[in-house]
Protein: Short-chain dehydrogenase
Organism: Tsukamurella pseudospumae
Amino acid sequence: MPSIFISGGASGIGRATALRFLSEGWTVGVYDVNEVALADLRSAHPEIVTGTLDVTDYDQWEAALADFTQHTGGGLTVLDNNAGVLFSGDLDEITPQQIKLQIDIDALGVTYGAKAALPYLKDQPGAHLVNISSASAIYGQPGIATYSAAKFYVAGFTEALELEWEKHGIRVVAIWPLWAKTALAETDAKSTRTLGVNITPEEVAEQVWHSVHPSIRVPFLPRVHYSVGTLTTLLSNSSKLAPRSVVRLINQITSQ
Protein backbone atom coordinates (compact mmCIF):
# COMPACT_ATOMS: atom_id res chain seq x y z
CA MET A 1 0.00 0.00 0.00
CA PRO A 2 1.44 3.44 -0.92
CA SER A 3 2.11 5.87 1.91
CA ILE A 4 2.43 9.61 2.46
CA PHE A 5 3.99 11.51 5.35
CA ILE A 6 2.71 15.09 5.77
CA SER A 7 4.50 17.61 7.96
CA GLY A 8 2.35 20.28 9.60
CA GLY A 9 -0.64 18.36 8.35
CA ALA A 10 -3.13 18.58 11.22
CA SER A 11 -5.04 21.52 9.74
CA GLY A 12 -5.50 23.55 6.56
CA ILE A 13 -3.86 22.32 3.37
CA GLY A 14 -2.08 19.48 5.15
CA ARG A 15 -5.30 18.07 6.59
CA ALA A 16 -7.07 18.36 3.23
CA THR A 17 -4.17 16.53 1.59
CA ALA A 18 -4.28 13.82 4.23
CA LEU A 19 -7.98 13.22 3.60
CA ARG A 20 -7.51 13.27 -0.19
CA PHE A 21 -4.87 10.53 -0.08
CA LEU A 22 -6.76 8.62 2.63
CA SER A 23 -9.81 8.51 0.33
CA GLU A 24 -7.65 6.68 -2.23
CA GLY A 25 -6.63 3.98 0.23
CA TRP A 26 -3.17 5.31 1.08
CA THR A 27 -1.50 4.90 4.47
CA VAL A 28 -1.35 8.49 5.74
CA GLY A 29 0.88 9.96 8.43
CA VAL A 30 0.30 13.45 9.82
CA TYR A 31 2.91 14.92 12.15
CA ASP A 32 2.56 18.40 13.64
CA VAL A 33 3.37 20.59 16.65
CA ASN A 34 -0.29 21.56 17.10
CA GLU A 35 -1.51 19.04 19.68
CA VAL A 36 -5.09 20.37 19.64
CA ALA A 37 -5.40 20.00 15.87
CA LEU A 38 -3.74 16.58 16.04
CA ALA A 39 -6.23 15.42 18.67
CA ASP A 40 -9.13 16.63 16.53
CA LEU A 41 -7.79 14.84 13.46
CA ARG A 42 -7.12 11.69 15.46
CA SER A 43 -10.67 11.72 16.80
CA ALA A 44 -12.25 12.22 13.38
CA HIS A 45 -9.94 9.86 11.49
CA PRO A 46 -8.31 7.31 13.80
CA GLU A 47 -6.97 5.42 10.78
CA ILE A 48 -4.49 8.26 10.13
CA VAL A 49 -1.14 7.80 11.84
CA THR A 50 -0.36 10.90 13.88
CA GLY A 51 2.54 12.20 15.92
CA THR A 52 4.45 15.26 17.07
CA LEU A 53 7.07 16.90 14.88
CA ASP A 54 8.98 20.17 15.16
CA VAL A 55 10.37 20.46 11.62
CA THR A 56 13.26 22.63 12.81
CA ASP A 57 14.68 19.72 14.82
CA TYR A 58 16.45 17.12 12.65
CA ASP A 59 16.39 14.47 15.37
CA GLN A 60 12.60 14.79 15.54
CA TRP A 61 12.41 14.29 11.77
CA GLU A 62 14.33 11.04 12.04
CA ALA A 63 12.19 9.85 14.96
CA ALA A 64 8.90 10.76 13.26
CA LEU A 65 9.79 9.01 10.00
CA ALA A 66 10.99 5.93 11.88
CA ASP A 67 7.71 5.91 13.80
CA PHE A 68 5.53 6.29 10.70
CA THR A 69 7.35 3.68 8.63
CA GLN A 70 6.66 1.11 11.33
CA HIS A 71 3.12 1.25 9.92
CA THR A 72 4.20 0.90 6.27
CA GLY A 73 6.57 -2.03 6.36
CA GLY A 74 9.53 0.33 6.31
CA GLY A 75 8.74 2.15 3.08
CA LEU A 76 7.65 5.67 2.17
CA THR A 77 6.12 6.69 -1.15
CA VAL A 78 5.64 10.44 -0.69
CA LEU A 79 7.01 13.05 1.68
CA ASP A 80 4.84 16.18 1.65
CA ASN A 81 6.86 19.09 3.07
CA ASN A 82 3.76 21.04 4.04
CA ALA A 83 4.63 22.78 7.33
CA GLY A 84 4.88 26.55 7.06
CA VAL A 85 4.44 29.79 8.97
CA LEU A 86 3.90 33.41 7.90
CA PHE A 87 4.18 36.71 9.75
CA SER A 88 3.11 39.77 7.77
CA GLY A 89 4.50 43.27 8.12
CA ASP A 90 7.37 45.31 6.77
CA LEU A 91 10.78 44.07 7.82
CA ASP A 92 11.12 46.79 10.47
CA GLU A 93 7.75 45.80 11.94
CA ILE A 94 8.29 42.11 12.60
CA THR A 95 10.48 40.76 15.37
CA PRO A 96 13.83 38.99 14.98
CA GLN A 97 12.15 35.90 16.45
CA GLN A 98 9.46 35.99 13.74
CA ILE A 99 12.12 36.34 11.05
CA LYS A 100 14.05 33.37 12.40
CA LEU A 101 10.94 31.21 12.81
CA GLN A 102 9.90 31.72 9.17
CA ILE A 103 13.35 30.84 7.86
CA ASP A 104 13.69 27.89 10.23
CA ILE A 105 10.30 26.36 9.41
CA ASP A 106 9.80 27.40 5.79
CA ALA A 107 13.34 26.77 4.53
CA LEU A 108 15.38 24.78 7.03
CA GLY A 109 12.46 22.49 7.89
CA VAL A 110 11.95 21.62 4.23
CA THR A 111 15.65 20.80 3.85
CA TYR A 112 15.74 18.69 6.99
CA GLY A 113 12.64 16.80 5.86
CA ALA A 114 14.12 15.98 2.48
CA LYS A 115 17.39 14.74 3.95
CA ALA A 116 15.71 12.63 6.64
CA ALA A 117 13.28 11.08 4.14
CA LEU A 118 15.86 10.20 1.48
CA PRO A 119 16.77 6.76 2.87
CA TYR A 120 13.08 5.79 2.83
CA LEU A 121 12.34 7.21 -0.62
CA LYS A 122 15.36 5.70 -2.39
CA ASP A 123 14.39 3.08 -4.96
CA GLN A 124 10.77 3.16 -3.74
CA PRO A 125 8.32 2.69 -6.65
CA GLY A 126 6.52 5.99 -7.34
CA ALA A 127 8.64 7.90 -4.81
CA HIS A 128 7.96 11.65 -4.63
CA LEU A 129 9.11 14.61 -2.63
CA VAL A 130 6.41 17.29 -2.68
CA ASN A 131 7.40 20.74 -1.44
CA ILE A 132 4.74 23.37 -0.80
CA SER A 133 6.01 26.60 -2.33
CA SER A 134 3.90 29.71 -2.93
CA ALA A 135 2.90 32.26 -5.55
CA SER A 136 4.88 34.72 -3.41
CA ALA A 137 7.98 33.13 -4.98
CA ILE A 138 7.05 34.44 -8.43
CA TYR A 139 8.37 37.89 -7.48
CA GLY A 140 9.52 39.14 -4.07
CA GLN A 141 6.55 40.33 -2.03
CA PRO A 142 6.72 43.42 0.20
CA GLY A 143 4.96 43.01 3.51
CA ILE A 144 5.85 39.32 3.63
CA ALA A 145 9.47 39.61 2.47
CA THR A 146 10.94 36.89 4.69
CA TYR A 147 8.18 34.40 3.87
CA SER A 148 8.45 35.22 0.16
CA ALA A 149 12.23 34.74 0.21
CA ALA A 150 11.86 31.43 2.02
CA LYS A 151 9.51 30.25 -0.73
CA PHE A 152 12.06 31.29 -3.36
CA TYR A 153 14.41 28.98 -1.49
CA VAL A 154 11.86 26.17 -1.68
CA ALA A 155 11.52 26.66 -5.43
CA GLY A 156 15.28 26.56 -6.00
CA PHE A 157 15.75 23.67 -3.61
CA THR A 158 13.07 21.71 -5.48
CA GLU A 159 14.72 22.31 -8.84
CA ALA A 160 18.11 21.27 -7.52
CA LEU A 161 16.85 18.06 -5.91
CA GLU A 162 14.77 17.21 -8.99
CA LEU A 163 18.08 16.86 -10.82
CA GLU A 164 20.09 15.48 -7.90
CA TRP A 165 17.62 12.76 -6.97
CA GLU A 166 16.89 11.55 -10.48
CA LYS A 167 19.55 8.90 -9.95
CA HIS A 168 17.55 7.60 -6.97
CA GLY A 169 14.31 7.32 -8.96
CA ILE A 170 12.67 10.04 -6.86
CA ARG A 171 10.49 12.66 -8.53
CA VAL A 172 10.65 16.09 -6.85
CA VAL A 173 7.92 18.71 -7.38
CA ALA A 174 6.74 22.02 -5.92
CA ILE A 175 3.16 23.19 -5.44
CA TRP A 176 2.45 26.89 -5.98
CA PRO A 177 -0.80 28.16 -4.42
CA LEU A 178 -1.85 31.79 -4.19
CA TRP A 179 -3.60 32.79 -0.96
CA ALA A 180 -5.64 29.84 0.28
CA LYS A 181 -8.39 29.79 2.87
CA THR A 182 -6.17 28.77 5.78
CA ALA A 183 -4.74 30.40 8.90
CA LEU A 184 -1.78 31.69 6.86
CA ALA A 185 -4.16 33.97 4.92
CA GLU A 186 -5.39 35.61 8.15
CA THR A 187 -3.00 38.48 7.60
CA ASP A 188 -3.12 42.17 6.73
CA ALA A 189 -0.97 41.72 3.61
CA LYS A 190 -2.50 43.92 0.91
CA SER A 191 -2.36 41.21 -1.74
CA THR A 192 -5.03 39.27 0.16
CA ARG A 193 -7.39 42.16 -0.62
CA THR A 194 -6.30 42.89 -4.19
CA LEU A 195 -6.03 39.26 -5.30
CA GLY A 196 -8.53 37.73 -2.90
CA VAL A 197 -8.42 34.57 -0.82
CA ASN A 198 -10.25 32.20 -3.13
CA ILE A 199 -8.34 28.92 -3.22
CA THR A 200 -9.58 26.20 -0.90
CA PRO A 201 -7.33 23.72 0.92
CA GLU A 202 -9.07 20.99 -1.06
CA GLU A 203 -7.98 22.55 -4.35
CA VAL A 204 -4.37 22.57 -3.21
CA ALA A 205 -4.73 18.98 -2.00
CA GLU A 206 -6.08 18.00 -5.41
CA GLN A 207 -3.02 19.50 -7.08
CA VAL A 208 -0.77 17.59 -4.69
CA TRP A 209 -2.58 14.41 -5.72
CA HIS A 210 -2.29 15.34 -9.40
CA SER A 211 1.44 16.10 -9.07
CA VAL A 212 2.02 12.59 -7.75
CA HIS A 213 -0.25 11.10 -10.46
CA PRO A 214 0.41 13.24 -13.58
CA SER A 215 -1.89 12.49 -16.49
CA ILE A 216 0.84 13.34 -19.00
CA ARG A 217 4.56 12.65 -18.65
CA VAL A 218 6.90 13.80 -21.39
CA PRO A 219 10.33 12.10 -21.44
CA PHE A 220 13.20 14.54 -20.94
CA LEU A 221 10.72 17.35 -20.11
CA PRO A 222 9.70 16.64 -16.52
CA ARG A 223 7.19 18.96 -14.90
CA VAL A 224 8.54 20.33 -11.65
CA HIS A 225 6.22 23.21 -10.68
CA TYR A 226 2.45 22.99 -10.24
CA SER A 227 0.45 26.20 -9.91
CA VAL A 228 -2.88 26.11 -8.08
CA GLY A 229 -5.71 28.12 -9.60
CA THR A 230 -6.08 30.08 -12.83
CA LEU A 231 -4.83 33.36 -11.37
CA THR A 232 -1.64 31.78 -10.03
CA THR A 233 -0.97 30.20 -13.43
CA LEU A 234 -1.60 33.53 -15.15
CA LEU A 235 0.75 35.40 -12.82
CA SER A 236 3.42 32.71 -13.15
CA ASN A 237 3.27 32.62 -16.95
CA SER A 238 3.26 36.41 -17.25
CA SER A 239 6.37 36.61 -15.07
CA LYS A 240 8.19 34.38 -17.55
CA LEU A 241 7.07 36.25 -20.66
CA ALA A 242 6.89 39.89 -19.58
CA PRO A 243 9.88 42.18 -19.01
CA ARG A 244 11.02 42.26 -15.39
CA SER A 245 9.99 45.91 -15.10
CA VAL A 246 6.42 44.96 -15.98
CA VAL A 247 6.40 42.08 -13.49
CA ARG A 248 7.66 44.50 -10.84
CA LEU A 249 4.86 46.96 -11.66
CA ILE A 250 2.20 44.25 -11.41
CA ASN A 251 3.50 43.19 -8.04
CA GLN A 252 3.78 46.78 -6.86
CA ILE A 253 0.12 47.36 -7.70
CA THR A 254 -1.13 44.16 -6.10
CA SER A 255 0.98 44.24 -2.95
CA GLN A 256 1.45 47.87 -1.90
User: Anything to note?
Assistant: The first strand starts at residue 3 and ends at 7. The longest helix spans residues 96-121.
